[in-house]
Amino acid sequence: MKRILIVEQTETARDRLSEVFERRGCWTITAGTIYEALTLLPDFAPEVIVLGVQLPDGSGLDLLGFIKRERPGTRVIVVDDEMLHQPRCLAALVDNSRDLHYLSGVAGQDGGRPLLAARQSVACSGDES
User: Fold this and answer.
1) Nearest 5°: CA angle at 128, between 124 and 129?
2) Which of 24, 29, 57, 61 has the fewest CB atoms within 10 Å, i.e. the most exposed one?
3) Domain range spanning residue 10?
């Protein structure tokens, strides 16, 4: 079962993402702050991290730097609800690895396209091969 850590400031977005991945057979755990994520990382050891850009205690992009240094090979999906950070997110894509993906509008009123893209970018145990 694939382990996914969802780090997102809004409970609604965390719940939506968690529900989507759990229905596909993934094991999810959520955090609403960088601090919470850092405390969960060692014991949970996620294979995938869904990372919001705006968090109450800082930028998810700062946490991204830590993840790439301390947990290389961990797949990261950066979500940016308002697309305000798109240039910085895209720069992070260039500076990091192929395991990094950028999506916008996950929690917004966009018809769920980015949520579907997030779901499709991670294969869980309940997926068909």
Assistant:
1) 95
2) 57
3) 3-120
